[in-house]
Amino acid sequence: MSSRLIFLVVSSVIAWILAFNSGRDLAYNLAYLLTTILVASYVWAWNSLRAIGLRRITRTRRSQVGQFAEEQFEIVNRGRAPKLWLEIKDDSTLPWHDASRVISSLGRNQTQRWQVKTLCTQRGRYRLGPLTLHSGDPLGVFDVEQHIDSTSNIVVYPLMLELTSFEPSISDLSGGEARHRRTYQMTTNVAGVRDYVPGDSFNRIHWPSTARTQRLMAKEFELDPTADVWLYLDLHRDAEAALPWTTQPPEPAIFALHGHKRQSLRYELPPSTTEYAVTVTASLARYFVLRNRAVGLSSRSRQREYVQADRGERQLTKILEALAVVNANGSFPFAQLIANDGMRLNRNDTVLAVSADPSPDWAVALHHIQRRGVNSIAVVLDGSTFGRQDDYTPLLVQLEAAGIPTYRVARGDDIAAALGVPMRVTNALDRRAHAG
Fold first, then answer.
1. What is the DSSP letter of 348?
2. Is the N-terminal amide bond of 422 cis, ω within 30° of 0?
3. What is the mean pLDDT of each run of 10 residues along the chain (436 residues)?
4. Which of 42, 133, 157, 256 is the most exposed place for a label (fewest CB within 10 A)?
5. What pTM, to 2 d.p., does this model score?
6. What is the Cα–Cα distance from 376 to 348, expressed in whole angstroms?
7. Radius of gyration of the chain measured on its C-alpha atoms
8. Residue 267 near residue 202, CB atoms below 8 Å
9. Are residues 39 and 89 in the same domain?
10. In this structure, how many other beta carbons lie within 10 angstroms of the beta carbon of residue 319?
């Protein structure tokens, strides 16, 4: 109960007591006035949220770091009486998503709309809603609320960077074995024909078989005999290193930019090896998918994230869906993940291991599967630049001794440039010793 309501109730009771005891007109008039104010305020507040329609339209349930999440709201007064003011409070968990509004003077059969654009700065799965409608009477005596419990989710994909080059080149990673594995992608290898089903494109129709059987027949394809690319992401909790960081709201000037100007902005990643590793993995997945390579993902935190190798934009979406929600809270050693999953790989497949673990154990695991004919590439997140005190020299020496191409990514690096050319471990160690 508000202080005004308590004051009016007490005053009304006192006024009626004085009126009954004294019988004076002034006391009765005061009692009638205070009672009328209470009743009128209650009726007004009770009617303020009746016959109100509210729609929430989310443009898309998928976004990406550096892109906008857009929603449109529509509120309509279907009642006969105007609404003096309405407050819409949004309890979404999407960072900096300010969808709350105060609507004033909503007349009869009147509609108001507004659009909310939020720059996505953190990957993850977020809740949109619930909403709370709040209103009251003009004197502020009564407050009423109505909760709209319906919610939905939006997934924010991690940041993907455009990699102009990556060594070894695509030609060096080819030459796999024939898999005889069916695929929905159209390749140069036709495996057979089957009956046409609704949804098949017309260029899949095999016209000679259609003419012979007198019914539509569609071609089936097999994967090209090229090696798969597997992205192994280390999500062990002991491998993570991070510095204190507080999210900052996006600058208002960003919302005025359009097209290529907005794309040229550089977004600062949180100072966490996990965020850098996820960005590296997503960027590599995009790099190989755009070059028509079959890409798979394997990682293990509290849950197993495994995406079977395949081609196409749909495959990239699957990988981004998995990367959007992963966290470094696993207890499964990265070296054991490489050893276990590496047993299922075919010769000439390529493993790109992304880790911030300074232990050389996972380098040894990469060396073992490399001896079986599986190409190995390492991306090392330098945890010493994220506040970690461990020495990465044994790991780097082990990777160089095994002949594994190694990339080093430190905090604040241009990731696209860091993945452009593998590091030379011996030269880097010599420069570090000379500087020391």
1. T
2. no
3. 87 94 92 94 93 93 92 94 93 93 91 93 95 93 93 95 76 48 56 81 84 86 69 96 85 52 60 96 95 93 92 94 96 95 88 96 95 93 94 93 94 92 65 49
4. 256
5. 0.81
6. 10
7. 32
8. no
9. no
10. 24
Phi-psi region at 259: left, alpha or beta (left = phi > 0; alpha = psi -120 to 50): left
Q: What is the pLDDT of residue 16?
A: 95
Q: Which domain holds residue 44?
A: 3-48
Using CA atoms, how far apart are residues 324 and 320, in angstroms rounded to an integer? Answer: 6
Would you say residue 271 lies in a domain? yes
The full DSSP string for 61-75 is SEEETTSEEEEEEEE
Is-contact 374 342, C-beta < 8 A? yes
User: CB-side exposure of 172: number of CA atoms within 13 Å?
Assistant: 8
Pairing relationship of beta strands 131-136 and 350-355 according to DSSP bridges: unpaired
Q: What are the beta bridge partners of residue 90?
A: 131
Q: Which residue in this structure is represented by tokens 């089936």?
A: 220
Structure tokens at 271: 């100072």
Whole-angstrom Cα distance, residue 273 to residue 121?
17
d(CA 232, CA 343): 14
Say how far apart CA 352 and CA 280 lie, in whole Å.
10
One domain for residues 201 and 320: no
Q: Are strands 83-90 and 131-136 parallel, antiparallel or unpaired?
A: antiparallel
pLDDT of res. 179: 46
* 95-123 CB burial, b ≥16 within 10 A, e <16: bebebeeebeebeeeeebeeebebbbbbb
Q: Is residue 290 part of a domain?
A: yes
Token readout for 315 is 């495959």
* Count of the separate structural domains present in the chain: 4
Note whether residue 57 is domain-resident.
yes
Output the six-digit token pair for 291: 């070059």
Is the domain of 283 the same as that of 389? yes
**Could you count the other beta carbons within 10 Å of the beta carbon of residue 354?**
26
Strand partners, 353: 232, 378
In a domain, 162, yes or no: no
Name the amino acid, one letter, at 159. Answer: L
Provide the edge-to-edge strand list for the sheet that holds 52-58.
Answer: 52-58, 68-77, 111-119
Q: Looking at the structure, tell me whether residues 356 and 208 fall in a common domain.
A: no
Tokens of 194: 């089957």
Give the list of residues 6+ apart from residue 265 with CB closer than 8 angstroms, or none. 66, 254, 257
Q: Which of 63, 64, 126, 71 is nearest to 95 (CA)?
A: 126
167 alpha carbon, distance to own chain's centre:
28
Residue 194 phi, psi (nearest 5): -150, 175
